[in-house]
Write a structure and sequence with these properties.
Elements lengths: L13 E5 L3 H13 L3 E5 L5 H7 L4 E4 L8 H9 L9 E5 L4 H9 L4 E4 L4 H16 L6 E4 L2 E4 L4 E4 L2 E3 L3 H12 L7 H8 L8 H15 L9 E4 L3 E4 L4
Parallel strand pairs: 1-2, 1-3, 3-4, 4-5
Antiparallel strand pairs: 6-7, 7-8, 8-9, 10-11
Helix pairs in contact: 1-5, 6-8, 7-8
Length: 240
């Protein structure tokens, strides 16, 4: 059941906090609720997906190092769930290595915050992620080759079959398709799709392009649509 169906005002967005350190969970909960959010806290990932299926949150905030199912595997479960796949995910973790950040992105994370963290920055970045996911595109369906990109429903179909994408993957693909034939540098794509999120690096674009290729290209290693322009960036190319 949705928040609207339960009679909760739309502005009161629900955030699931998955954090096994009680002091940190309370800190995050306090600042999010002070900012106008509603929260639910989980000390492990065991029941998160089943509870989210009953009441879909607006945002997940996941620690990676939690008992049982870790945060990365929980992210994977969420992204593979048809009902939850487009809900934004933020990682809040002590893992600061670049490889961990990249892994979090590859699995579908929308933001990655390293502990220790600023609670005010956490709230600001949560709001930025939610603004991005809530922004409506002009109603239209773009058709290129065997692809259909429905900007109203935020759906991608390949040969008539729907392909699950994250919000960020969809926005990147939609932006490139709307500008078919134009070459964009990584920095230009960052400005267009991630303008309010400082954690993303040019390498993140490569991660997202690879993930999109795996979903839409018949042969991802020899892309038909998403072309790499060596020394410049990427372009979307309509097949002849």
């Amino acid at each position: 059941m949705t928040r609207r169906e339960l009679g909760v005002p739309a502005a009161k967005q629900l955030v699931y906090i998955v954090e096994d350190e009680s002091d940190i969970a309370r800190l995050v909960k306090h600042h999010l609720e002070a900012a106008g959010f509603e929260t639910r806290c989980f000390g492990s990932g065991a029941t998160v997906v089943s509870e989210a299926m009953k009441e879909v949150p607006a945002l997940f905030i996941l620690d990676i190092m939690i008992p049982g199912t870790d945060g990365l595997d929980l992210c994977r479960q969420i992204r593979q769930n048809g009902t939850l796949s487009r809900v934004p995910i933020m990682f809040l973790t002590a893992r600061a290595n670049e490889s961990d950040r990249v892994r979090g992105l590859e699995l579908g994370g929308d933001d990655y915050i390293v502990k220790p963290f600023s609670p005010r920055e956490l709230v600001a970045r949560a709001r930025a992620v939610l603004r991005r996911s809530d922004q409506a595109s002009p109603p239209q369906v773009l058709k290129v080759g065997n692809l259909e990109i429905d900007s109203t429903a935020m759906r991608v179909r390949v040969d008539g079959r729907e392909v699950a994408t994250t919000v960020r993957e969809f926005r990147l693909l939609h932006y490139l398709v709307r500008n078919t034939g134009r070459v964009f540098t990584r920095d230009q794509l960052l400005d267009a799709v991630w303008s309010e999120t400082s954690y993303v690096t040019p390498r993140s674009i490569d991660v997202y392009i690879r993930r999109i290729r795996e979903k839409i290209e018949p042969q991802p290693e020899q892309p038909r649509y998403l072309k790499t322009v060596h020394g410049a960036g990427y372009r979307f190319e309509a097949p002849r």
